[in-house]
Amino acid sequence: MKTVMFIGYGSMARKVHEMLPKNVKLSTVLASPRSANHLTIEMGESINVITSVDDLLEVPDIAIEMAGQDGLKEHGIKILERNIPLGIVSVGAFTDEKFAISLHDAAKRHGVKIHILAGAVAGIDGINAASLAGLSKVIYQGRKSPSSWKGSYADKLIDYDSLKKATVFFTGTAREAATLFPANSNVAATIALAGVGLDETQVELIADPTLSHNIHHIIAEGIFGKLEISITGLPLAENPKTSSLAAFSALRLCHQIDQALQI
Ligand SMILES: NC(=O)C1=CN([C@@H]2O[C@H](COP(=O)(O)OP(=O)(O)OC[C@H]3O[C@@H](n4cnc5c(N)ncnc54)[C@H](OP(=O)(O)O)[C@@H]3O)[C@@H](O)[C@H]2O)C=CC1
Ligand SMILES: O=C([O-])CC(=O)C(=O)O
């Protein structure tokens, strides 16, 4: 039996837990102090709920962060320092250069891997391979319903009540998008890290009142040719900001723990 630890136990983590393969057990949840008490009761005795890596009782085979950019910043380095490989979805934390360097250094020092998960998008492998020969342009467009943007910085930019048609409310770099929209634009950072970087990746964000899905559109051009990918993703029922594919990308890592053949 392999063991996994979750950092954060919100909408995404709950979906991954529900679908864990039979040979992988959730051994530990690293929760926020706000949620630790109720999660201790909910999880029962077989899963340890802790609020600090220092309290870890059993070292898991892998840890997966699903706690937001601040959660990753709080716990990521300590996880690596315990020699635990780390899967990451809150990739926008890499916009903080100092943190990104420290995280990378900790992984190298301790000989463990950081897995940047593809999250809600696809084609990260192709973009990364293409970047080795040279990319001239990478554009990411994120299109979601107004309810998926509510509660974010978009509140300052959109008058939701008067929104009748798809409206572009942000254009900028992946660095700006992932910083301003930490719960909505981690994919912009992932695409950027795979491709031309946080400052060269162009991002457009759209609120569309006709949508109930999250649409991610990626265009990349370079020496390899041109790639265009569009994903119409169903959001998680509990969190319209998060596409279900993001949870399945974390689930994929749980399946990979024990697989000799990796695809
Ligand atoms: N790469 C990608 O494609 C995507 C990435 N994401 C990232 O994944 C994250 C999780 O998504 P989702 O589950 O939908 O979000 P939720 O808001 O539903 O869950 C986040 C969970 O993390 C917990 N948390 C917050 N801070 C900490 C901390 N310091 N330590 C431990 N736990 C903490 C929260 O606890 P509490 O409720 O007590 O605050 C909550 O349970 C998002 O915040 C986003 O950063 C999301 C979608 C796609
Ligand atoms: O799940 C999504 O649609 C994308 C997302 O929220 C993010 O990148 O943070």
Q: Portion of residues in helices?
A: 25-40%
Which structural category fits the helices and strands?
A: alpha/beta
Low-confidence stretches: none
Q: Please outline the major beta sheet.
A: 6 strands, parallel
User: What general outline do the C-alpha atoms trace?
Assistant: globular
Bound molecules: NADPH dihydro-nicotinamide-adenine-dinucleotide phosphate, oxaloacetate ion
Order of helices and strands: EHEHEEHEHEHEHEHHEEEEEH
What portion of residues belong to β-strands? 25-35%
Number-wise, the strands total 13
Rounded to the nearest angstrom, the distance between the terminal CA atoms is 21 Å
Output the strand order for the largest sheet: 3-2-1-4-5-6
Give the helix tally. Answer: 9
Taking all Cα atoms into account, the compactness measure Rg is 18 Å
Structural key phrases:
263 residues, alpha/beta, five-stranded mixed sheet, 9 helices, binds oxaloacetate ion, pyridine nucleotide biosynthesis
